[in-house]
Specification:
Number of strands: 4
Strand content: 5-15%
Number of domains: 2
Strand order of the largest sheet: 2-1-3-4
Helix content: 40-55%
CATH architecture of the largest domain: Up-down Bundle
Bound molecules: glutathione
Number of helices: 9
CATH topology of the largest domain: Glutathione S-transferase Yfyf (Class Pi), Chain A, domain 2
CATH class of the largest domain: Mainly Alpha
């Protein structure tokens, strides 16, 4: 059964799912949405995902949405290689790390939030400062967690759902010129992931819709 991922090259939520799919060795067809042009709001895509957000993963007869739900589904349907640790306590820590990115940082910095701030008269510098503020806020919390639990990846020696969320958020932090010097543990995870084939294949620059810098 061919899967289809509705994605956008540098959007972080589909990037999370691309990493998860690559870690699990699951292939898929790629449908690119141009989020600036507004493809996600067109009726054609709303028929796939009524929320008008990426990602959506069509698994043949069902469309899965919400990156964390998709990552959990991947783990449940393909337990190996595991992207959650075995112990319940450890899983809770990994999920907390993922939630800091997916629930606390990203929703404040999404494309539609930037669009709304712009509509309300906030200038580009103001929007950039807003974006940076919430990334820094989340990274301030994540840094000691990663320093405590990470051993190469955010939690332990193997990639987990925490890395699926953290690596795209680091990409976004670089895009929005956040100084990462205060976050050496997070920086070390980025370096480790850059060497890993799953993270390499999922990287925005390696997507069919990637645009030159
Ligand atoms: N909570 C959702 C967030 C999905 C989301 O916000 N996706 C962004 C891309 S990273 C999007 O499609 N934005 C389009 C828009 O804001 O109009 C998830 O984790 O899947």
């Amino acid at each position: 059964m061919a899967y289809t991922l509705y994605s956008a090259w540098r959007a972080t939520a589909p990037y999370r799912v691309r990493i998860g799919l690559a870690l699990k060795g699951v292939g898929y067809d790629y449908v690119a949405l141009d989020l600036i042009k507004g493809d996600q709001r067109e009726p054609e895509y709303r028929a796939v995902n009524p929320q008008g957000l990426t990602p959506a993963l069509d698994i043949g007869g069902h469309v899965l949405t919400q990156s964390l739900a998709i990552l959990e589904w991947l783990e449940e349907t393909r337990p190996e290689p595991a992207i959650l640790p075995k112990a319940a306590l450890d899983r809770a820590v990994v999920r907390a790390m993922a939630d800091i990115v997916a629930c606390d940082i990203h929703p404040l910095n999404n494309t539609r939030v930037g669009r709304e701030l712009h509509k309300r008269g906030i200038d580009p510098e103001g929007i950039l400062a807003w974006t940076q503020r919430w990334i820094k806020d989340g990274f301030d919390t994540l840094e000691p967690m990663v320093a405590k639990h990470g051993k190469g990846f955010a939690f332990g020696e193997q990639p987990t759902i925490a890395d699926c969320c953290l690596i795209p958020q680091i990409y976004s932090a670089n895009r929005y010129e956040v100084d990462l010097a205060p976050y050496p543990a997070i920086g070390a995870v980025a370096e480790r992931a850059a060497e890993h084939p799953a993270f390499q294949s999922a990287h925005p620059n390696n997507q069919p819709d990637a645009k030159p810098a």
